[in-house]
Amino acid sequence: MDTRRVDEGPDAAKPRPLRRDAELNRRRILRAGREVFAARGLQATLNDVAHHAGLGVGTVYRKYPDKQALAEAVFAEELDEIAAMAQEALAEGDAFAALAGFLEKSLERAARNRGLRELMRHGTLEGTGLARARGEITSRCERLVARAHAQGVLRDGVTEADVVPIAAMIDAVMELPTERPDEMWRRYLAIVLDGLRARPDQAPLRDAGGTG
Asked: What pLDDT, on the 0 to 100 scale, is given for residue 211?
């Protein structure tokens, strides 16, 4: 008698799809992780996330073996959404407004997310999803800068490498004590953007090494 299992075949090795409740729990954990890391930063624990999600910590550990795995999944989603914002900006006709708008929207997102700002500062998470999303953001920022130069609206000497330091400067402003933090960082972003706009009377911009 043939005793082979009936499920042996080309599809036998394929992973079974997550049950509906398991997938709902995964999304619930990710949503809770986003909210907890945004409020408390990367010092938050898996226990914090489990409590916020209303789940047992064992359920969280079954999905994500440690905090780094969960944080990488959470911030890969965050960075994917920022990359999508950059893609939307590329569709705008005014290249300077597109670049300025992307900077403002991404910084607005960071202003509400302590964990995202800590990730921007320290970059301690290195998952494949994060690396892919960072690469997409970098590529789209390069295109935003190139379009602005092509339209003659961006100051000579500004490159895509300047975007991250600009974001870091505004992040530092976000840390200043003030009664109106949102107004403060937007004020200084406006000053920076004014310096990025091309004008006929501008002096040459020195490069980062001080040789310009």
From this structure: 47
